[in-house]
Amino acid sequence: MIIVDSREKKNAHILRYFDKNGIDYKIKKMDVADYQTEGRDKLVIDRKQNLDELATNLTNPQDKGRFWREVRRAYKSGIKMIVLCEHDKGIKSIPDVVNWNSKYSTVTGRVLQEKIYQCHISYGVEFLFCDKSETAAKIIELLGGVSDDK
Question: In the chain, pLDDT over 90 holds for what percent of residues?
Answer without folding.
Answer: 82
